[in-house]
Amino acid sequence: MPSCHHASGVQDQGCRKVTYTKRRICALKGSTVAISCTYGSGYIVKTPLWFSPKQSASWRDKSIPEDLTRDPGYVGSVEYRNKETWRYDGPSILRITDLREEDSAEYRFTFKTYNFEWGHSFPGTTLSVTGLCGIIHIVSGLQVKVTPAAEGQKTLTCNTTCTLTDNPNPTYIWYKNRQVVTEKTSPYSVYSNAVDSYSCAVKGHEDLSSHAVYKPKTTVSVSTSGEIVEGSSVTLTCSSDANPPVQSYTWWYKKNAGHYQSMTGPQHVFNQIQSSDSGEYYCEAQNEMGTERSRTINMGVKYGPKSMSVSVSPSGEIVEGSSVTLTCSGDANSPVDKYRWYKKDGASLTRSEKKYKFTTISSEDSGEYYCEAENKYGRLNSSSLSVDIQCKYS
After folding, report:
1. Beta carbons of 316 and 293 less than 8 angstroms apart
2. Do the bridges between strand 188-191 and strand 153-160 make them parallel or antiparallel, or are there none, so unpaired?
3. What residue stretches are annotated with the Ig-like domain (predicted)?
4. Among the listed residues 115, 116, 110, 16, the one whose alpha carbon sits nearest the alpha carbon of residue 64
5. Is residue 18 within 8 Å of 119, Cβ to Cβ?
6. CATH top-level class of 3-130
């Protein structure tokens, strides 16, 4: 019997036909779609079913269509209208609920009679489920695109990744901090650097809204939780919760009360940190919605004694019998815990204070003196000081 092809289906001269209502359908992720066709036969219909050529090895390898209702990938999400009461001819509707991106496929209807099988080798309806795309965060097939507008403003556009079959020119619901603010066909204008978040949904599908867009929420962390000690490795990390994703990170820092400087990148790394790196640090993160800075970290680098020296008081000529004080001085970030005094001839003096006092100095006290300072980060000897005692004549 001769047969002919139609744009929406296949049939022969009134006896056998499968005609699809739509050849292409675009639907939102998470929604429900109805794919329909009409079919007919001059014979009693036996075992009609819907299937997808992409399904399983049983179809690909053996050319045996597999009923979608028996496919593990579709269990609980597909149903046929009047599946058990097929007529000699009439409509058939395949409903797929809670659509996933992997449900994007071609779907075909086929039926058998006692004399022949019909429909499975001809093209069916192609379903596209909109999903994640590019660098913009999308959920349910919706995306909010951010573009610059007039100075101080941004334009938000709500898009679907393909034209929705059941609603090609939708009205969008716009949300500000999850509260409805307006209904528009899109776009929607907002102020740059606004602290609010914005999302959208197709009217009639409010339960399938997009991800919200918002400027970065920026934080900064230090690789070590304890004290920062000179010579150690330290990393400052700038991180951010943002949508669209962060485009750039900038570090701002001011060392030891100097002027602010900047560097780019999400991390500021010190392989061997120095006391000169002490100062204020904060970072800024920027995306298409605006810029946000982190809190400021006041970073103090701990270190042991440095640049130790000994001074004498009073200065000038020292006369036998006078009162003289030696003072141990230097730089240390963390107080000095211990001082030790030495005479360069190898003698260790008994006192352990910062100052060493001669109540009545004698000529025997002449010589070179130095001190040692110690804290929990290290210890260091000072340079030596020569003390020359002049005799006192009667």
Report:
1. no
2. antiparallel
3. 123-202, 216-298, 305-386
4. 110
5. yes
6. mainly beta
Sequence-distant (6+) residues with CB within 8 A of 61 are none
DSSP string covering 165-193: TT-SS--EEEEETTEEEEEESS-EEEETT
Intervals of the chain under pLDDT 70: 1-16, 41-46, 55-64, 81-90, 131-141, 161, 166-167, 346, 393-394
**Residue that is written with structure tokens 């001059």 in the block:** 42
Cα angle 157, 160, 163; round to 5: 120
pLDDT of amino acid 177: 93
- Three-state secondary-structure class, residue 392: coil
Separation of alpha carbons 107 and 95, rounded Å? 11
Provide the residue ranges of all domains of the chain, joining segments of one domain with +: 3-130, 138-212, 216-299, 304-390
The pLDDT, as a whole number, for residue 301 is 94
Q: What is the CATH number of domain 138-212?
A: 2.60.40
Tokens 């919605």, located at residue? 289
Tell me how many degrees the CA angle 134-135-136 measures, rounded to the nearest 5.
95
pLDDT at 386: 93
Which tokens belong to 353?
């204070």
Name, in order, each residue with C-beta under 8 angstroms of 315's C-beta and a sequence gap of 6 or more: none
Residue 37 and residue 16: Cα distance in Å, rounded? 13
19-50 tens-digit pLDDT: 888 888 888 777 888 998 888 766 666 677 88
Residue 342: per-residue pLDDT = 92
Helix/strand number for the chain, H first, E second: 1, 36
Enumerate residues 6+ apart whose C-beta is below 8 A from 138: 130, 131, 132, 161, 210, 211
What was the pLDDT predicted at 55? 65
Amino acid (1-letter code) at residue 40? G
- What is the CATH code for 216-299? 2.60.40.10
In whole angstroms, how large is the CA radius of gyration of the chain? 41
CATH of segment(s) 304-390? 2.60.40.10
Q: Give every CB contact of residue 239 below 8 A, 6+ residues apart in sequence.
A: 218, 219, 220, 221, 266
What six digits make up the tokens of 144?
């909010």
Between CA 331 and CA 230 the distance in angstroms is 14
Fold: same for 216-299 and 304-390: yes
